[in-house]
Amino acid sequence: MTIFKTSLFAAGIIGLSLAAAGCSSSNTTGGHQKAKDLTVVFLPGDSAKEAGPARTALANEIHKATGKKVDVKTTTDYNVAIQAISSGKAQIALMGPDSYIQAHKQNASVEPILTYSGKSGTLKDAQYHSYIMVPKDKASQYKVNGKYSLEKIKGKKMSFVSNTSTSGFAIPAGAIQTSFKLKNKDDLQQSGKFFSKVLFGGSHQGSAVNLLKGDADVAAFDDMDLVSYGKFTNDSTKAGADFKINANAPAPFNSVRGKESIALAAYPVQNEPIAVNSKMISKSDTKKIISALTSSRIAKDEKFFAPSNAKVHSLLPKDGDTQFIAISDKWYAPTHKVLGE
């Protein structure tokens, strides 16, 4: 029996109201319509072909925990994933912090249930990094008084991920806004304003490729979505971090293998959540999913967590005692504050 399937969400089929999303495949529980089957939606960076086994692993675990059929939905646009979970078309989502907060703003029923820990196995170091990068062979041009600086990026060709990406736009754009004392971030999204040209890669992989192929002079992307394709050759937590694409990296990096980029700046970002639309999934199923995914078995499964040098493409990066930990929206208070939401 097929327990799940994978398909691509198209923007045109997502614009559904919460009630419409539940009317054909749901029952009523506690005054709200709950989905009979479950749909998990992924952001573009987690929708790449090589992440397929990891998506399948997550779908399998949710199926085993709840007994429900699970439909996996991939996307090529952040806004599609955000609307999918906020409308109830999807009941579960693996999201970046900013995407989660945008979905929560649209519908307060979208709530985080899990994130993954840092190396310590706790929430104390549950963070990754957002970077503003330049090609290694051009990096010296961005030094001021011997140190890497944002001072010379104005007027350059810039690549972001998506205007709803935490680490691919919100954090780096906020840093640029602060550094240059801009009134808002609006001009950073438009060609011919602060930057001569602005590109959106659609994913962290896409933004990095824009930089390494020479379509952009400067690019924003994170480490979490790139470590399966390359590695840092030095300290990845600060300016000067050197990221090199693996010699056998798959598409879209097959044309830029071996190329390197240098971070002009690095910013910590709270780890991403698995979120649910609580009006569309029962408390019982939510508890079962949390129980299953926080098990020691999952923490040891390389389809979920694997180090950057592993042969498998895991759902999330593994470092030390990385594991899933149950959370609520309160844990994201720092990101709410940074994003002004």
Which structural class do the helices and strands define? alpha/beta
Strand runs, count: 20
Mean pLDDT: 90
Tell me about the largest β-sheet. 7 strands, mixed
| Shape label | globular
Percent strand equals: 25-35%
Descriptive overview:
The protein is of the alpha/beta class and 341 residues long. It is 25% helix and 26% strand. It has helices at 18-22, 52-66, 78-87, 97-106, 166-180, 204-212, 283-293, 296-299, 333-339; strands spanning 4-8, 26-29, 32-35, 38-42, 70-74, 92-94, 110-116, 127-135, 143-144, 147-148, 157-160, 197-200, 218-222, 230-232, 242-245, 260-270, 273-277, 305-306, 316-317, 324-326. The strands form five sheets. It has a seven-stranded mixed beta sheet, with helices on both faces. 48% of the residues are buried. The model is unreliable at 11-31 (pLDDT under 50).
